[in-house]
């Protein structure tokens, strides 16, 4: 289990005429992080710097870059924020538009740190675990009973499709799969079919 953000967020600060734009993203791989960084550089093509840091839970991967700023003034402080708050699967990119006034190394560290923290303050922190998306096939007359059971068990419904029968997609952490199968049978909810669709990181409800 690890802590991360539930959705992407952003914030902007101005320090001595330099503008710092912090964008924070939820990521699941290095490839995803590098693609986002590439797109940020395209979006802010006229900016002086696009500094970043990211951490991925799997294999404990960390990367950071000062992108032309003095060594240690941007990328490392951003990574320190991620690790200091115990976060994973997160990418922070801070874009700087130079305002013509030098900030010095201490000023740069403070500005990059403040912009990232401001963006994080706009984010919801959640706990995620590896789990599965499971499809349940249910007759219409048993839908309310199944939904009531799922609500009581704090199991999230991610999608419902209404066809000849109803297909409910739910997100279940790995450790609860066996319990789910057992209880669905014991409670006589008349589930016609249970199938695992895919694996993914899911939010662990308290």
Outline the structure in words.
This protein has 206 residues and is an alpha+beta fold. It folds into two domains: 2-123, Ribosomal Protein S5, domain 2 (2-Layer Sandwich); 128-203, 2-Layer Sandwich (Alpha-Beta Plaits), CATH 3.30.70.240. Helix content is 30%, strand content 40%. The chain contains five helices and ten strands. Strands 1, 7, 8, 9 and 10 form a five-stranded antiparallel β-sheet that branches. Strands 2-3-6-4-5 form a five-stranded antiparallel β-sheet, with helices on both faces. The longest helix has 18 residues, at 104-121. The mean pLDDT is 91.
Key traits:
Ribosomal Protein S5, domain 2, 206 residues, 2 domains, 5-stranded antiparallel sheet, Alpha-Beta Plaits, alpha+beta
User: What's the story with the biggest beta sheet?
Assistant: 5 strands, antiparallel
- Give me the secondary-structure category: alpha+beta
Shape assignment: elongated
Q: What is the CATH topology descriptor of the largest domain? A: Ribosomal Protein S5, domain 2
CATH-defined architecture of the largest domain: 2-Layer Sandwich
Question: What is the number of independent domains?
Answer: 2
Question: What portion of residues is helical?
Answer: 25-40%
Overall average residue pLDDT: 91
- The termini sit apart by 12 Å
Number of helices: 5
CATH class placement of the largest domain: Alpha Beta
**CATH-wise, what's the superfamily of the largest domain?**
Impact, N-terminal domain
H/E element string?
EEEHEEHEHEHEEHE
Beta fraction? 35-45%
Count of DSSP strands = 10
